[in-house]
Amino acid sequence: MLPLTDEQRLVRDTVRAFAREELWPKAPEHDASGAFPWPQLKGLAELGLLGMTTPEAYGGAGLDAVSWALALEEIAYADPAVAVIVSVTSGLPQYMLLKFGTEEQKKRFLVPLAKGEWLGAFALTEPQAGSDPASLKTRAERVKGGWVLSGTKSWITSAGQADLYVVMARTGEGRTEITAFLVEKGTPGLSFGPPEAKMGLHAAHTGEVRLEEVLVPDDQVLGQVNKGLSHALAGLDSGRIGIAAQATGIARAAFDIAKDYADERVQFGKKIREFEGVAFKLADLDTRIAAARLLVWAAARKKDEGGRFTQEASRAKLFASELAVDATREAIQILGANGYHRDYRLERYYRDAKVTEIYEGTSEIQRLILARSLYR
Ligand SMILES: Cc1cc2nc3c(=O)[nH]c(=O)nc-3n(C[C@H](O)[C@H](O)[C@H](O)COP(=O)(O)OP(=O)(O)OC[C@H]3O[C@@H](n4cnc5c(N)ncnc54)[C@H](O)[C@@H]3O)c2cc1C
Question: Which fold has domain 121-226?
Answer without folding.
Answer: Butyryl-CoA Dehydrogenase, subunit A; domain 2 (2.40.110)
